Amino acid sequence: MTTLFITHEDCRLHEMVEGHPESPGRLEAIDIALRSAPWYNQLTHFSATPISREQVAAIHSRSYVDDIWHAQPGDGLTRIDPDTSMNRHSLRAARLAAGAGIYAVQEVMNARANNAFCAVRPPGHHAESLIGMGFCLFNSIALAAEQALQTGAERVAILDFDVHHGNGTVEIFLDRPEVLVCSSFQHPFYPGRFDDVERPNICLTPLAEGTDSSEFRTAIERDWSKALQQHRPDLVLISAGFDAHREDPLAGCNLEDEDYSWVTGFIRDQALALCDGRIVSMLEGGYNLDALARSAARHVEALL
Ligand SMILES: [Zn+2]
């Protein structure tokens, strides 16, 4: 298997208020964990290139894209929502984050790699077509899905195991039957948007606070196997958030490191059966640096 590891050091220049949990240290922690893994040299490394304004407008409204392009401050911060702000590096970081996914899709769809993990920030799955929110500016996983559809894929699936609901991804693809969106999330919980919609292509898996390994695995197997087999995607995309971990400070689920090996292995097996194993995974949440680093390493190891 060829697994791409895509990142860019400038994704660490995006910083919000002091002490914000979505910090540059997240990418540093993942980098350190992966470098110490015995399989690190088996990864194929690539440095992301930024997405263009036109490409972002494929899924976000022109007015929102223009607002973000002009929101960048010289010094200090521009607030996007109560949890999300931009410094002078944020636009470039968001463009690189989305660009990583676009590149990954091109490489995987053209069989130059089997799968890919993009270690990028800011995350994306809360960004809706008209608004950024919840630490997210551009919906990178949705842009990656759009790229796949524009370049040959007939159907794609997005699997989101972040502890927060991927409201932006659901909103963007609500009436796009060629995109299956499966999201598992603590409920009731942030952001409380688009978490009760009913569409054949939207598969919602709410999880009670305190959900543990066995409850999580049962729910994912029950909901995602059937949805994937019915949809028969040409590519599987993953919104890989690691904040359902029991050590995460922002949420109340109780997953362990091994659950990220398990869920990645589950997705890998489904993708092997349905689409020659084509997977593009992108980092979303995960805010305890140690747990994030260990969990992301488990995820990448299972992709390899
Ligand atoms: Zn999250």
Which architecture name does CATH use? 3-Layer(aba) Sandwich
- Give me the count of strands: 10
| Main sheet specs | 8 strands, parallel
Per CATH, what is the topology? Answer: Arginase, Chain A
> Could you say which overall geometry the principal axes of the C-alpha atoms support?
globular
What is the ordering of alpha helices and beta strands? EHEHHEEHEHEHEEHEHEH
Return the average pLDDT rounded to an integer: 98
* Beta-strand residue percentage: 15-25%
Helix content, binned percent = 25-40%
Question: How far is the N terminus from the C terminus?
Answer: 6 Å
CATH class call: Alpha Beta
Hetero compounds:
zinc ion
Which structural class do you get from the secondary structure elements?
alpha/beta
Number of helices: 9
- Main sheet: strand order: 2-1-5-10-9-6-7-8
Number of domains: 1
Walk me through what this model shows:
The structure is a single chain. This protein has 304 residues and is α/β, with parallel strands linked by helices. The protein has a single domain, classed as Arginase, Chain A. The chain contains nine helices and ten strands. It has helices at 25-35, 53-56, 62-71, 90-109, 140-150, 167-172, 213-231, 257-275, 289-303; strands spanning 3-7, 44-47, 78-81, 84-86, 115-118, 156-160, 179-186, 202-207, 235-240, 279-283. The strands form two sheets. It has an eight-stranded parallel β-sheet, sandwiched between helices. A two-stranded antiparallel ribbon has the order 3-4. Helix 4 (90-109) packs parallel to helix 5 (140-150) and helix 7 packs parallel to helix 8 (257-275). The longest helix has 20 residues, at 90-109. The protein is globular, with a radius of gyration of 17 Å. Zinc ion binds at residues 162-164, 241, 243, 284-285. Zinc ion is lined by residues 162-164, 241, 243, 284-285.
